[in-house]
Amino acid sequence: MSNTLIPRTPSAYEGPLLLKNLLFYPVVNNPNQEIVYRDLYRGTYRQLRQRIARLANVLTGLGVRPGQTVAVMDWDSHRYLELFFAVPMIGAVLHTINVRISPDQILYTVNHAKDDVLLVNRDFLPIVEAMHSRLESVRAYMLLADDGGVPECTVPFVGEYEQLLAAAAPAFDFADFDENTRATTFYTTGTTGMPKGVYFSHRQLVVHTLAAAATFSSAADHGSFRRDDVYMPMTPMFHVHSWGMPYVATLLGVKQVYPGRYTPESLLSLREREGVTLSHCVPTILHMLLRHPMSQGMNLRGWKLIIGGSLMSRSLCIEALGRGMDVYSGYGMSETCPIISLCHLTPAQLLLPIEDQAALRCRLGRPLPLLDLRVVDEQLQDVPGDGNSPGEIVVRAPWATQGYLNDSAASERLWRGGYLHTGDVAILDADGSGRITDRSKDIIKVAGEWLSSLELEDIIMRHPGVVEVAVIGLPDEKWGERPLALVVTKPTEQGPASEKKIVQHVREHVAAELVNKQAVLIKVQFVDAIDKTSVGKIDKVALRKKYLPRA
Length: 551
Description:
By secondary structure, the protein is of the alpha/beta class. It is 30% helix and 23% strand. The longest helix has 17 residues, at 45-61.
């Protein structure tokens, strides 16, 4: 092949895709737009730029050099947003620590990532005090405290965040470097073994931000994200960069509201006081907000909410739509930065009754630009788009992680055949749209037939006496497996839900051909609560350990 690379003028600027470039637009065009942290901080984009520079001066003054790793343990805050930019912009790597995993797992991730500097919210001091003598690479600690005070403790802090920033210069010359430089790392919340490190470059984060922004801005009012929106995350900033949305929000120059530690009272109060119009969360958070007494008399109309992390049930979607919320599904995973697809409805679909809309809003949606999504069999051959043939979702995207940190074997398994394997099973229709039916490891195999636990959960959730449900496979000598529904109930006018009523409810849906006929073999067990992972997803590994007989 002949050399067709473009010739470069020696004086020309190449323009690497670096995170610092996401700041150009908002700082120039909307410098006075607000960034809010609870009722404790209210700043502007102009101040954001200055604070990022101050933080860069603090970090380099501590000896942080390109390629070194700065870790943070904090709730969602303006500080976290500043770290999203300042650390990668000096050529270092930001490690966003999952503060909800066990102390042993936190210790493992800090040592595995070889963190050099650790910023710690005082809420997490007991964890760090207990482990800091076992941290192998951390040489400096910085305190994050809302009140600015430094408590007595055994951790040798170099100082408190705000005090250090106040003493630093408000300007910093952020040099250019290779756009493929690693910018961030975090650890997946795996339910087996120790967490795996995922990492992303500047180029990947910038391209993901641009693709997401293009998708949101091309939508009509439904599901859009534009300059006049007010953004508040309800997915932790330690988890896949809060789905990458703070980067999108900063690029657009919108008002940003950071809620700190999530409580229904604080989220609902901030939403009302600050005029929040767009958020994202897992179904558990939406369920919590809708059920909270404070929300009952509150006007939630117009609140756009992207639901991801696990499948949103149709009944939950209908309830939110009934309150005037614009809820719809987003799909992705830690390894894909994370957004793969968004479920925006067409103008014609928005005219449908709420019940019909809900069925569409809970589907897979359309892939982002630049992303290749396929549904394949075990030989990586495309399955038919016939509405019946299941296969695994595999993807290629410029922002998909190139592997797991220091784990080449797991990286090759992730990318076998040249596609990133999601582990999610889906069925495509003739028009290219589709629905996720299960995780491949959660599919229930009844007499050789596949039964989707997610579809069965969705049906059971439509019963008026059910608050929450998880379905797992119960070993059975005759059938191989049969579905076990773990159900949390609530009182109704018709009396409490019973196993007989729920089984009959499922049979009616089988008769209507809305679920595989093997669903009639369901067994129901009532429980007080459903186990969750650290990011609010149903933890089926924990449920299997708790409720299935030991081999």
